[in-house]
Amino acid sequence: YRRLHTKERQLSEFNQTEIKAMLGSYTKVLFVRDPFHRLIAMFLQGMGISPSFSSFVQEVLDSGKHNGSVAWKPLVSLCRPCLIQYDYVVMFGFLRQELGHLLRRAGLPAGSLLPELTDSQVQWTYRWLSEQMFSELSAQQKKRLSHFYRWDLAAFPFSSSFLSD
Q: Where do the structural domains in the chain lie, given as residue ranges?
């Protein structure tokens, strides 16, 4: 979509007609990840100053949805899947399969462009990490996290998420 100005602008700065035209001219792909896995990855990358996963989760919960980092905000509040009709939703843990499909749809040779992804190993590792990290949390933290990410859990099929319970 042609830019109306040279200055970069947020989607919310355009009027409804412009937004509709822009969104209609792109193939929209949303990459999603289990919110609990996102928290684990952020903790392991040192995004919080907390010495333990439990205290990191408490930081996230205390910061809330409005003051928290974009890194751990619920996806629904960032990507607006109820307002924007995405053409594809790609789940972390199924990247090789889903990216291959996207590349074929775009007319590109999927096999030669994809990095070597071992989805089953990634899923197993995150399952193990989730069990370890989840056991560190108090019952109240588990309940608050499930509530914090309730819309993500409702919008996307994270059926095996520890937060779904």
A: 11-155
